[in-house]
Amino acid sequence: MKNEFVKIDNITIPMYSMNTIVVGTGAAGYNAADSLYALGQKDIAILTEGINMGTSRNTGSDKQTYYKLGLEAQMTDSIMDMAKTLFSGGAMQGDIALVEAALSTKCFYKLVEIGVPFPHNEYGEFVGYKTDHDPSKRATSVGPLTSKRMTEMLQKQVASKNIFVFDSYRVISVLTKQDGNDISAVGLVAINMDDLEGENKGITLFNCTNIVYAVGGPAGMYLTSVYPESHTGASGVAFAAGAQGVNLTESQYGIASIKFRWNLSGTYQQVIPRYISTDKDGNDEKEFLDEYFSDTGKMLDAIFLKGYQWPFDPRKILDNGSSLIDILVYNETQVKGRRVYMDFMKNPTAAIKDGKFNFSLLGEESHTYLKNSDALFGLPIERLVKMNTPAIELYQNNGIDITKEYLEIAVCAQHNNGGLLGNMWWESNVKHLFPVGEVNGTFGVYRPGGSALNSTQVGSFRAAQFISKNYTDTAMESEKFISTISSQVSSIIKRANNIQKNMGSSSNVFTERDIIKANMTKNGAHIRSLESCEEGITFCKAKLANLFEETKIANHREYPEVFINWDILMSQYVYLSAIKEYIIHGGKSRGSYLIQNIKGQLPLDGLPDMFKFSLEDKVIADEIGFVNLKKDGNELSCDMVWEKVKPIPVTDNWFETVWNDYMDDNIIK
């Protein structure tokens, strides 16, 4: 790595040059850097807003899952079987499904070797369990903080190799060059958040041959969210640089706590707590589910099944399905303006007979599970103590004692199944830009639970393989780099100047962010319509038009936050445009969202017509939508192209042929 100072617009700016910069310190980013180093590319560095800020380190669930090929003796599994499962979820490329299946064991065993304590039995079998959309028993876990343990162990690997980390740097631009119709990434602009008051306002240049973009999903888009508050994402930066989006309609939502952000899956639901709502001030308490479920047993089963079936799924709304609860929670919070809680201290009133929970009301699946868990007794909190005491301790460690207080909840954004386009080496349409992890839209519509963690490892390793074989050049000479990107950097400097002209005694940067986030929660979360998309798009364009001139900041520390607001708006604009085009294309409810259809079916009598919907009828299940952001001066637009998914490749794996190709370096290209 080389460092120097350069001048642009008479401002002295620090510049660092290297072969590859990795953006992000989650499970994908750390693995990319570690793999690059192991494969011989050591002219690398990592850049991050904050080592401890990402989703990988700060999220989990009741039993956070890692999904891989089945590795126990009594189950039959194969790479093709797993690829078919990934592919069958819809809108997933067949070649990527095959790669993620083929490399799942390699990446899993690496994690085991570096100290992630996945459980095995006395014979060395890594036993598993079934997870969402999983026909087999491929899932494994180290507990509620699997991704955190992965990240910590990978960080140790990176530290042992002395790979340099630029901490407290916010990426605000991907720098590019155009060659005919081809566009390539050549570097980054970032703000050094520990040096905001100097001449350069913290602006720092990174001149590099490759960018591994491991920035996570666009978490900052939503007000109602289970993403960690410290994680906002940086997808807008990539869209603005010309990176295509793919499957941007597909995100995942579910019930979560909102004071401390955490997915309420697994035993939190299986102990069958009370669901209550109140007015804004905590008065007028009522068990609102009773108003809609005519059969108490079906209500109790629906609550229980939220443990297995945590993500909102429109296929599980009708006939008193588990996702009806998500609809009813949304109706209370977003339509009626009330607050909703889970109460573990009392049993649902409708289930009480002679002062005790009437377990005979439960269906066979719920009853058998609780019986096998020795939990057919007591109150929800007592059943939770029996089945999963750490679930209680998790909240206690974060200032909430669910043995004594209600847990406030909402239906929250949780995972981005779409994202930036990547090929089977995880390279974007913007050459030399490799989106890996959640920011890459590889996941399709119905991904098996835990496949996202596998994808972080497979994708980052594949990117490292490709770079180490094909993109080994040193960064551009300084003068050539500056001549290539000076106009792009000048526009950044102009924006920074406009922001700092508005520094005074008052600030609106964070109040504006909440207003911006509310736009996506209202118009682009799990309840959608063509009209709401158009409303959201109009909002984004209006805000973007004058954002840098109209935002007020109170101090230098707030100036990078304006660029974050810009990134969130850019992401919202592209995502909402994709959702709009999906609806125009004939798309209906699927995945983890409901498309309003006034001619459709109402989940239950008594609900507003806004919940009428029709299920996706497979008309476009085998298509993928590719989105391009276009800029004509200050005018934004998006176009969307639909293509058939690639089938899973059927390979003729004659050993001598593969061996010769491998020995001749004809594989990684």
Instruction: Please report the first level of CATH classification, the CATH class of the domain at 253-414.
Output: Alpha Beta
- Range of strand content: 15-25%
The dominant shape is: globular
So, CATH architecture of the domain at 253-414? Alpha-Beta Complex
The major β-sheet equals:
8 strands, mixed
Q: How many beta strands in the DSSP annotation?
A: 23
> According to CATH, what is the topology of the domain at 253-414?
Flavocytochrome C3, Chain A, domain 1
User: How much helical structure, as a percent, in the residues?
Assistant: 25-40%
User: What is the CA-based Rg, rounded?
Assistant: 25 Å
Low-confidence stretches: none
Question: How many helical elements?
Answer: 19
What's the overall average pLDDT, rounded?
96
Distance between the termini: 26 Å
Instruction: Give me the secondary-structure category.
Output: alpha+beta
Supply database-style keywords:
19 helices; Flavocytochrome C3, Chain A, domain 1; 35% helix; 669 residues; alpha+beta; eight-stranded mixed beta sheet; five-stranded antiparallel beta sheet
